[in-house]
Amino acid sequence: MTNSVVVAWVQLPRGIRILTQCLLASSVLALLTYGGFVLRINLLTISLLYLLIVVSIATGFGFWQASFASILAVFLLDYYFEPPIFSFEVENPGIFVALVTFEATALTISRLHAREMRGAREAATYLMGMEHLYELSRCTLLLDLRQPPGPQLAVLIQRIFAVRAVALFDIGLGRQARLGAWGPGEEDLAKECYMRNAAKDDPQTETLERLLQTGAGSVGALVVRGPLSPLVLDALAALAAIAIVRHQSFEKEDRAEEAKRSEELRAAVLDGMAHELKTPLTAVQTASSGLLALGGLTDSQAELVTLIDGEAIHLNDICSRLLVAARLDGRQVGLDLVEVNVKDLIIEILADRPTSLGGDRIRAVVDDPDLIVNVDRELLAMILDQYIDNARKYSTPNTPIEITARKSHTEVLFSVHNFGSKIRIEDRERVFDRFFRSSDQKDVAAGTGIGLSVVKKAAQAHQGHVWAVSDLREGTTFFLSLPVGVRSQQ
Questions:
Q1: CATH number of the CATH domain containing 282
Q2: 293 lies in which domain range?
Q3: Are residues 49 and 180 in the same domain?
Q4: 274-278 long-range contacts, CB within 8 A, separation 24+
Q5: Are residue 323 and residue 210 in the same domain, yes or no?
Q6: Are 328 and 344 in the same domain?
Q7: 119 and 43: one domain?
Q8: Domain stop point among 301, 332, 363
């Protein structure tokens, strides 16, 4: 019942409310005047009582009602208590002092009260906003991160803050979620705010815009239509940005976990295939080598057997690299670190390469013939052999291939350079990914996309790095850097 009366009172026009309050003030003053006159209260006392009524009306109703009450009180004071009574003849100028005092009191008290009420309303609004923000922050922790965050946040914002409309744009997904009553031409307000990279507010329609900022930049934009404090809206935009970043992080982690599982499965399959292929390849290689050793073959037969023997050796080498890659993926390789003379190792690698595999056009440059590295000899030989094999396959025929090694204060740098087709900038890191082959290189030479991925894993096991640079005029160079003091990662 009380709430209904309050609601009905608030809904009355302001003029009617002021008139009603003035009538109420007149009634109180009339009662006080009658009581004072009957009880013959002196002028000073009744003046103070009138002042108290004016202060009460200024506090409860406002300045205009208190001003009316103060003027009425002066007239009543002059007519009933200031001699000569029952007349408005002013013989004592103190009545004007009373009028000024009443008016000054009404003005001061009403302004102070209005300021206090305004501060109380702002504090209440701020407190309510903080409560809503707390509820929103608690709800955002329960968001389904497998679903786009925009629609979920829009529903939460409209429900918790009771705004008329919400629009949220997520740049990561390129989507805009909209709820509430938006008019024609307002379909892309949030997206336009993001593209404009600036927020603007419209007080007339209570439409507020905010960019969703993070440390890395904007991740979207939020547009709200409703009575929200700018401070609350700023905090709301920050919570929305955090929710979007959490969703992006979850997606990245999910993709990384899925890639990890796929890579583990692929490594296990490759390891099994390599083991299964090793035995028949060894038999084929043994048989072909035996046939060549027995002799008595025609030239055509010898050529075919030599081809079989060479390809068996090549397949056996691929299987060995697959096994090394699988063990590197599973961190099962313990480095057998020994001191290796770089020049002797390169000479040994080149000596095993026949002229038919480009051994006659490879030049080695080692600044220091006594250069020693502390490495796993087998893995370093495999890296350099793979680099040389790549240079041979993708270089222009009869152009030189150069392998160099030099030492600085902190690392030993190996490089293999050749002239040939260019590797695109966007592919220079990806060529070290397993099974990746650049679209420009697929038709140049046959390959599996495994060798360079094994090189990268072997370098990482030595705490080293691999990279490539390529230019159509200067050629292509693959690099390997190894720290001077390599330690095993086990």
A1: 3.30.450
A2: 144-332
A3: no
A4: 274/319, 274/320, 274/322, 274/323, 274/326, 275/323, 277/315, 277/319, 278/316, 278/319, 278/323
A5: yes
A6: no
A7: yes
A8: 332
Per-residue pLDDT 10s for the chain (490 aa) are 455 655 566 566 878 888 888 888 888 888 888 888 888 887 778 778 878 888 888 787 877 887 888 888 777 877 787 777 777 665 666 666 766 777 777 777 777 777 777 776 666 666 777 787 788 888 888 888 888 888 898 898 888 888 889 999 998 888 888 888 888 888 888 888 888 888 888 888 888 889 998 877 888 999 999 888 888 888 888 888 888 888 888 888 877 777 666 666 666 555 555 556 666 767 776 777 777 777 777 777 777 777 787 777 767 776 766 666 666 655 555 677 888 898 899 888 888 665 444 556 788 888 888 888 888 888 888 889 888 888 888 888 888 899 999 988 888 999 999 988 888 888 888 888 877 777 666 555 555 667 788 888 888 888 899 999 988 888 899 999 998 765 544 4
| One domain for residues 353 and 317 | no
Q: Is the pTM of this model over 0.90?
A: no
Q: Is the same domain home to 190 and 115? A: no
Residue 137 lies in a domain: no
Spell out the long-range contacts of 247-255 with Cβ–Cβ below 8 A and sequence spacing 24 or more: 247/143, 247/145, 247/148, 247/149, 247/172, 248/172, 248/219, 250/145, 250/146, 251/145
User: Which tokens hold the place of 462?
Assistant: 């030595």
